Amino acid sequence: MVSDVGVVFPLDKSGKRGSLAVNQAIWADAVRGVDPDLAKRIDASKSWRKEYAAFIPEITALCASSREAAEAIAAAGLESARSRIVFERDGQVTSLDVAADLAPAFEFATETVQGKAVPASELVVPYLGKELRGDALRRKLADWVAHGIIEPSAASELNLVIDNPQWLRLPGQRIAVLGAGAQTSPLPALTSWGADVLAVDLPREQVWDRILKTAREGASTVHIPVRTDVKGSVAARAGANVIENVPELANWLRGYDDQPMVLGVYIYADGALHVQATLAADVIGTSLVANGQTVAMAYAGTPSDCFLVSPDAVEDSNARRRSRKWRALELPMRTISVGKLYAPAYEELLESSDGDSMGIIDAIVTQQGPNYSLAKRLQRWRAIESWRQGQQASFKVAPPTWTVSVTKNRGLAAGYYGARAAGLEVFAPETMSVLMTALLVHDLNVPPVDEHPELRLTRAGVHGGYWRVPFDIRSTLLYTGMVGIPRAYLPEVQFR
Fold first, then answer.
1. Long-range contacts of 41-48 (CB under 8 A, 24+ apart)
2. Is the model's pTM score more than 0.90?
3. pLDDT tens-digit profile of 302-333?
């Protein structure tokens, strides 16, 4: 789907808003200044939908060459996206760079909800029907590290949050949550901790009934944008379409410039809409910064992407592959498949000009499509560009999660059900949400480590095992899918 109003793909020569050619051009533009030959090969692709996934590892590896290369690619990619995609309203086409400064078609009023609960005094993580806190939570973090489910740095950062529960309220900061009603939204955690929240989601009454219930049952002050020209309950008047309402949302958020703001982007949409929503959030965030506000962009990355990871992850993966357990499976599977199944996860380390060593993990799921990959890469590029400019940003890789967007695709659901056969763990949304929100809290309270920006992207990743399993993820999909098919196609079976 492609929206025709707001942040939109431009009309092509046939008068249609196709996203594929623009998607391809943005990737080419991103690398053109660093590797012109690679850009030419991307430009020359005749079937981008089929070929995009083969180019992304090349682009990611190019980022390993130096910090400057990674930063240049991020800046060029963002510039290309914001120059090729436009804002359209009432037949008028405008550059994204000025979209947030257009005269609002209307002004949002604010509905404020004060929760009645007492703020949580410690970090509590729901997990398989239990509530993990204190020593029990520390033990689980150590267990996840031992099994390669999360990075050791993730456990360290979460342990630091456990040690500093006063951080949970985010004192002196306000967090705007775009996609407040999403399954993996940080809103439930933030409201239980007593944070000051600006909640934004689509104007859908059912969604807002749920958000309002969360706000009332929490311990936070939650501010909500509401239409004054719409009649009915708060839920009926609440919400905004990020893609369409860029000027209106930017104007509303400018009213909260009395303290530093976190702009958390937790929006998911199918296809081209995901790119449009991501860019809309980007335009809003950068406009607030240009307005003089202190704004930290925050993102939860997907594990089904291509990343540069630490040598430690590579060494751990190779050690696991050499273990008796996995060798017993690898040999027959590779023999039967003529080397196509259960291939090693890593080949060799990449070296940057700065002396950094990195492994490259390619976990792209092609069923998610080229627009999903571009949307998630735009988020990475913004984080890198923010760091380059000396601004605060949080980017943490989240684990595979049982969300509706996954389970409605039976092929993906089958792979998730069989994930344990490959050494992976799929998380419940409520578990993922608390863990990732706690990592955001850490980033907002602890200065970042000075390192290659691609390694900063993967620091403290909660990847579910993607980076430390013994084998290339895609080379295990046939096996894990077959293991998971019986459960994926039996509707009476609960997702776990």
1. 48/20, 48/21, 48/23, 48/24, 48/370
2. yes
3. 999 999 999 999 999 988 887 766 666 656 66
